[in-house]
Amino acid sequence: MNFNPDDLRLESMEDLEEVVRQSEEALSRLGGVYGELAAITGEGFGADGLARAVVDGTGRIQKITFDPRIARLDTQTIAEAATEAVLAAQDAAQRQNEELIREATGGQPVTLDMESARRQFEEIGEDLARSLRDLTGRD
After folding, report:
1. Distances (CA, A) of 103 to 40, 84, 91
2. Which of helix, strand or coil describes residue 139?
3. Structure confidence at residue 2 (pLDDT)
4. DSSP states of 102-128 as a string?
5. Which residues of the chain have pLDDT under 50?
6. Can you give the pLDDT at residue 1?
7. Cα–Cα distance measured from residue 61 to residue 84, given in angstroms and rounded to the nearest whole number
8. Predicted model pTM
9. Phi/psi at 130 (nearest 5 deg)?
């Protein structure tokens, strides 16, 4: 049984136990990914490698270094090289973030729309309460 909140129809206690088990597994995978996300760094280069940037998983610049040969270039070109390196590093970090999340969720999209998530949880809760009433024969 794949867990899809839109298709949630609990017909037995076994279905409920399966949903709980899958939810626990998903939370465990996402919890493990959190530490990996914090460790991500992205690296990028500009001006044919004369500028190098390293960013963390959120895209914050950790380090910019320049090959000494960059001093031969004008300041505008150096600035463009630094920008190019930072953007490339941010892209690299973002790709790594997306890959980790894709692996943790089994390719399922992760929503950051909190209002939508709240509504989904309310609907799941209502379906769960209704199913439990049906299973136990209580109103």
Report:
1. 15, 29, 18
2. coil
3. 43
4. HHHHTT------HHHHHHHHHHHHHHH
5. 1-6
6. 39
7. 13
8. 0.60
9. -60, -45
Residue 63 tokens read as 């380090």
Between 13-39 and 114-136, two packed helices, what is the crossing angle to 10 degrees?
Answer: 150
pLDDT score, position 48: 96
Instruction: State the Cα–Cα distance between residues 114 and 123, nearest whole angstrom.
Output: 14
Spatial separation of the C-alpha atoms in residues 51 and 12, rounded to whole Å:
61
Instruction: Report percent pLDDT > 90 for the chain.
Output: 40
- DSSP for 46-96 reads ETTTTEEEEEETT--EEEEEE-GGGGGS-HHHHHHHHHHHHHHHHHHHHHH
DSSP string, 7-61: G----SHHHHHHHHHHHHHHHHHHHHHHHHHHH-EEEEEETTTTEEEEEETT--E
Q: What are phi and psi of 55, to 5 degrees?
A: -125, 160
Measured CA to CA, the distance from residue 9 to residue 132 in angstroms comes to 11
pLDDT at res. 3: 46
Of 53, 76, 75, 73, the closest CA to residue 65 belongs to: 53
